[in-house]
Amino acid sequence: MRVGAPPTDPDCVFCGIVAGTIPSRQVYADEHAVAFLDLAPWHRGHTLVVPRRHVPDLLTGEPALTEIAPAVDAVARLLQQRLAADGINLVSSAGAVAGQEVFHLHVHVVPRYADEPGLLRLVNPASAPEGELESVFGQIRAGA
After folding, report:
1. Catalytic amino acids?
2. Which of 134, 91, 103, 96 is nearest to 13 (CA)?
3. pTM higher than 0.85, yes or no?
4. Within its chain, how far is the Cα of 57 from the centroid?
5. Residues 90-99: contacts with CB within 8 Å, 24+ apart?
């Protein structure tokens, strides 16, 4: 690791995305965080915000949520503006029993729409239709 580089985990998929060795549809980046579309979106525009440095979760190691909070805010506003979302949910799970599947801190920024309101409809198990991720990515990037 070069001097000044954030700590990474070579086995972490999100560290690979941050490093650019794993492709993603990146919608936002700053000095502390990277945001990209989720490959299995719960709703149209579902985006993950991750710290550039490897942090397993909200409760392990040095706190990182305050580092990525400006990115979470910026992404939520971006998704609301570009996708005309009616609301936004923010979710972060800490630990396997809480449902965490990738052990690199991440915040789900989930645009919500009037046709599927409420917490009971937050997690939508249906796959995104063919071409949906590219369509959403194009719509978000169009205003950049």
Report:
1. 106
2. 103
3. yes
4. 14
5. 91/122, 92/57, 92/58, 92/65, 93/57, 94/57, 94/58, 94/59, 94/60, 95/57, 95/59
